[in-house]
Amino acid sequence: MQYVVQKNDDEATLATTHHVSVGNLRKANELLPQPYLVEGRTIEIPTDDKPNDSQNSNNTSDNQNHSGVETFDPNKKPTN
């Protein structure tokens, strides 16, 4: 999806708003002149945010509707 950068946009806010990782947002725009977040510039926001590594591919339990976003539960015991 294409998006026109607005004044004061930053990577973290754009990533959170569009449910993508900052890493995938950067990767989708790596060919643009840097810095790529320039007011008025059209950038690409990936619409299918997949984990970049195989370690995250086992995370299918409670995050089915969050497309690559993990939630932190301080009460959950780690599993190894």
Note down, in words, how this protein is organized.
The structure is a single chain. By secondary structure, this protein is α+β, with helices and mostly antiparallel strands. It is built from 2 helices and 2 strands. It has a domain at 2-55: Membrane-bound Lytic Murein Transglycosylase D, Chain A. Strands 1-2 form a two-stranded antiparallel sheet.
- Assembly form of the protein: single chain
Output the strand order for the largest sheet: 1-2
Give a short account of the largest sheet: 2 strands, antiparallel
What is the CATH architecture term of one domain?
Roll
What brief labels describe this structure?
single chain; 80 residues; alpha+beta; Membrane-bound Lytic Murein Transglycosylase D, Chain A; two-stranded antiparallel ribbon; elongated
